[in-house]
Amino acid sequence: MIENKVTKIRLTFCVILVGISLMLAAVVTDHWAVLSPRVDKFNATCDAAHFGLWRLCTKRIYMEGPDPSGKGCGPLSLPGDINCTYFKHFTSGENAEIFEVTTQKEYSISAAAIAIIGVGFMVVATICTLLSFKEKLDYFLKPAALFYAFSGLCIMVSVEVIRQSVKRMIDSEDTVWIEYYYSWSFACACSAFVILFICGITLLLISLPRMPQNPWESCMDAEPEM
């Protein structure tokens, strides 16, 4: 590949590495959404919850006064006892009965499965990109670009599934949660989608043959890159 093209690919790949880091941070952490019950009494404890793709965490917080941010029980930065349970938000059981929460098993499983597929696309894309730097293997760049774009789309679908799950949970008549907001893991997932999708399309455009510069020149007449 010509030097100018290699430089563009390397710069794009550096940006992609940021997107990869954000996506991994979103998948493995559990601060996608924070749920809060109604707080009618102060100088008492309340239970807030936050969850991700793999576990649900509840935190018992002592509330001395109203939350300055207006989000009910919290903020989560206040000291309190934390109890995290893996996959508990995928099933009904004692934890759901205590907090009277209607859990959305299908939503959570779908979001986690789609995110894992996205991680798989991302790994394959990274391998293809590294191979494309070798001599006469630049044809790996096109599939790498598509895989990065697919990875971004997968994490965006997971974001929408989680958003719908939270909405249904809040709208349920059986729930105690009345306040919610999306936290930093959710923001990481959204940022990863933007970076991976845009950079995937950028890599695809870079990998395309040079367009003819003259009316009589065809793509086959263009100067070879190897």
UniProtKB/TrEMBL annotation:
GO molecular function list: calcium channel regulator activity; voltage-gated calcium channel activity
Topological type in the membrane: Multi-pass membrane protein
Keywords noted in UniProt: Calcium, Calcium channel, Calcium transport, Cell membrane, Disulfide bond, Glycoprotein, Ion channel, Ion transport, Membrane, Transmembrane, Transmembrane helix, Transport, Voltage-gated channel
Annotated signal sequence range: none
Annotated TM spans: 12-34, 109-133, 145-162, 182-206
Domain of life: Eukaryota
GO cellular component, one term: L-type voltage-gated calcium channel complex
Keyword tRNA-binding: no
A GO BP entry: regulation of calcium ion transmembrane transport via high voltage-gated calcium channel
Main subcellular localisation: membrane
Keyword ATP-binding assigned: no
Location relative to the cell: Cell membrane, Sarcolemma; Membrane
Pfam family, one: Claudin_2
Family affiliation: Belongs to the PMP-22/EMP/MP20 family. CACNG subfamily.
UniProt xrefs under PANTHER family: VOLTAGE-DEPENDENT CALCIUM CHANNEL GAMMA-1 SUBUNIT, VOLTAGE-DEPENDENT CALCIUM CHANNEL GAMMA-1 SUBUNIT-RELATED
Subunit structure: Component of a calcium channel complex consisting of a pore-forming alpha subunit (CACNA1S) and the ancillary subunits CACNB1 or CACNB2, CACNG1 and CACNA2D1. The channel complex contains alpha, beta, gamma and delta subunits in a 1:1:1:1 ratio, i.e. it contains either CACNB1 or CACNB2.
Reported function: Regulatory subunit of the voltage-gated calcium channel that gives rise to L-type calcium currents in skeletal muscle. Regulates channel inactivation kinetics.
Protein name: Voltage-dependent calcium channel gamma-1 subunit
The species this protein was found in: Pleurodeles waltl (Iberian ribbed newt)
